[in-house]
């Protein structure tokens, strides 16, 4: 069974890699072993699409979104799980509504709201939009995690005179690293792969993210499959590297949530 799932995951990547190593302009309809290794496709795709600037923009936005979103979700989840916040049930239900509303429905009103305050075509505007879009899941994730923490641990800290801030950072956070790391990896993947928000909110081509740039690149080279495959591998490489680096913490966080749930 594991071998079947492994094949399902790896076959698309293998198909992309084999296509990227074909000579540029080669028509492809399926798996085909490359006639030689043509690594120049990656260099051509990099220069033609301007991936240096696009990847830098994606990195800036992801590094702006992920820390802020993780901190906000952690604080909100901690408050809703452990504190007697007035109307916390209604507030939590209101936040969960965000999980049922697709981004496509909100992107046009969001554009006009950000334009009214001068935040369109800017990194802060796009970062705020992504943080807001990611917050419902993050609050849900962290609230579920803190709700499973032993109440006796929290009560003991309060009896010892610890403030809510000290209880969170000194008592609960050391055992919450897998959950926080998992949320951070998910946020990074979602921010990096975000396509619609950067496409609508960023009109300057030099400020667009890698997925948005890949979409424009696809329109220009739609018949050159090897070049498109090389460009796609360039865009997904950072996501794969981040996941491989944090995979142990990610799996621990997912399994911990599954076992506690």
Report on the biggest sheet.
none
Please give the number of β-strands: 0
Mean pLDDT, nearest integer? 85
What is the straight-line distance between the termini? 25 Å
Gross morphology? globular
Structural class of the secondary elements?
Answer: mainly alpha
**CATH topology type:** MetI-like fold
- In terms of quaternary structure, what is this? single chain
CATH homologous superfamily? MetI-like
Report the sheet-strand fraction.
under 5%
Total helical segments: 12
CATH class: Mainly Alpha
Radius of gyration: 22 Å
Q: Judging by the overall fold, what is the CATH architecture?
A: Orthogonal Bundle
List the secondary-structure elements in sequence, H or E: HHHHHHHHHHHH
Helix content: over 70%
Main location: membrane
Subcellular location: Cell membrane
Family: Belongs to the binding-protein-dependent transport system permease family.
Pfam family, one: BPD_transp_1
Give structural notes.
The chain is mainly alpha-helical and 261 residues long. It has a single domain, classed as MetI-like (MetI-like fold, Orthogonal Bundle), CATH 1.10.3720. The protein is 75% helix and 0% strand. It has twelve helices and no strands. It has helices at 2-20, 40-49, 51-82, 88-96, 103-116, 123-147, 151-159, 164-172, 177-193, 196-201, 210-220, 225-260. It starts with a helix and ends with a helix. Belongs to the binding-protein-dependent transport system permease family. It is a multi-pass membrane protein. One of its GO terms (cellular component) is plasma membrane. Pfam families: BPD_transp_1. It is found in: Cell membrane.
């Amino acid at each position: 069974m594991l071998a079947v799932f492994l094949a399902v995951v790896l076959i698309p990547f293998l198909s992309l890699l084999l296509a990227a190593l074909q000579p540029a302009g080669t028509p492809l309809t399926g798996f085909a072993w490359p006639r030689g290794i043509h690594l120049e496709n990656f260099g051509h795709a990099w220069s033609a699409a301007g991936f240096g600037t696009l990847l830098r923009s994606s990195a800036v936005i992801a590094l702006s979104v992920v820390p802020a979103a993780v901190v906000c979700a952690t604080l909100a989840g901690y408050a809703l799980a452990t504190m007697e916040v007035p109307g916390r049930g209604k507030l939590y239900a209101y936040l969960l509504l965000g999980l049922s509303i697709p981004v496509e429905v909100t992107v046009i009103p969001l554009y006009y709201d950000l334009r009214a305050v001068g935040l369109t075509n800017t990194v802060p505007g796009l970062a705020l939009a992504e943080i807001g879009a990611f917050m419902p899941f993050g609050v849900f994730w962290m609230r579920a995690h803190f709700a499973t923490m032993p109440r006796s641990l929290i009560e003991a800290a309060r009896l010892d005179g610890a403030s809510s801030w000290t209880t969170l950072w000194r008592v609960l956070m050391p055992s919450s690293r897998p959950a926080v790391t998992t949320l951070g990896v998910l946020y990074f993947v979602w921010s990096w792969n975000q396509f619609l928000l950067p496409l609508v909110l960023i009109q300057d081509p030099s400020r667009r993210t890698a997925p948005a740039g890949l979409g424009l690149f696809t329109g220009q080279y739609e018949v050159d499959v090897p070049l498109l495959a090389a460009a796609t591998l360039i865009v997904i490489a950072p996501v794969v590297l981040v996941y491989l680096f944090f995979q142990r913490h990610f799996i621990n966080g997912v399994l911990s949530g599954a076992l506690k749930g």
